[in-house]
Specification:
- The chain is α+β, with helices and mostly antiparallel strands and 175 residues long.
- It has 2 domains: 110 residues, Ferredoxin Thioredoxin Reductase (Alpha-Beta Complex), CATH 3.90.460.10; 49 residues, Rubrerythrin, domain 2 (Single Sheet).
- Helices cover 35% and strands 14% of the residues.
- It contains 7 helices and 7 strands, in the order αβαααβαααβββββ.
- It is globular and about 45 Å long.
Amino acid sequence: MNFAGISEQDVERAYEILRKDAAEGGYRINPDTEFVKNLVQGLLRNEQRYGYRACPCRLASGKKEDDLDIVCPCDYRDSDIETHGACYCALYVNEAIASGTQQVTSVPESRPPRSQRGTKKERAVQTIQIGASPLPTLPYPVWRCKVCGYLCAREEPPGICPVCKAKKDRFERFI
């Protein structure tokens, strides 16, 4: 396995780092090691092509600011795992799949079509008018971990806090 300078050792090294980071973050990696290493090779290939590890199962634009939502781990990982048991590319899976008691099934695409994503500026900040001064608002609610204070802006709080590993029920809506 070698793609433009990507050796088996590169894939193995990246795989071990990914596996360790996932475990430390409270996530599970697909138990099919060969499948995962093929995904890792795709991540490394995209890093060569674009300079960032875009999800190998999605078409990246080559503009990092337009693809931030699909840089692995993508913004859709947690909701896909909670709803379908796995993320879109099935790199990350729930405990049942990791233990072999559940099979990976097809996961529908969660990423909105490009025409519905808006421009970078529209995604970053929208404004509302209160009195004479506009106040910035985010397109997503902000969630705060009540254990460590971690903040994130997304539709739902993460399944597991990436800092302290607290569960989803330990988050509160902050803004």
